[in-house]
Amino acid sequence: MKKVSAGIVCRNGKILICQRPKGKSLAGFWEFPGGKLEEGESLQDCLKRELKEELDIEVAVGDFFMESVYQYEFGEISLNAYFATLSADQEPVLKEHPQLAWINPKDLGAYAFAPADLPIVEALKKYFLN
Prior knowledge:
Layout: E1 2-11, E2 14-19, E3 30-31, E4 34-36, H1 43-55, E5 59-72, E6 75-86, E7 100-103, H2 118-129
Parallel strand pairs: 1-6
Antiparallel strand pairs: 1-2, 1-4, 2-3, 2-7, 5-6
């Protein structure tokens, strides 16, 4: 099983989501940014590295939110979501994703998320709307 970390990057009451690029698996679906765990690193360090590589941002990784395990045709993944904060003076740079969006938590259901991200979407809707 591949371990993946994902960031619930929050700023000004909105959450950062990214669209998966053409040519990669699940192209066109939206996701919480992050990536695959490399040997010898923690999930939190993985998240920091991936966000720096993919979006050129540095985040403070906060609390663990939840794990979503999903069996894709290409293998099983364990998606581990953490809250993360981004300073006000940083703006994500699109290096791999065709687009990104800062969305209100109540609008999460309006986007087509990758299947492994859907349990996180549902849990976030409950978390923010309670």
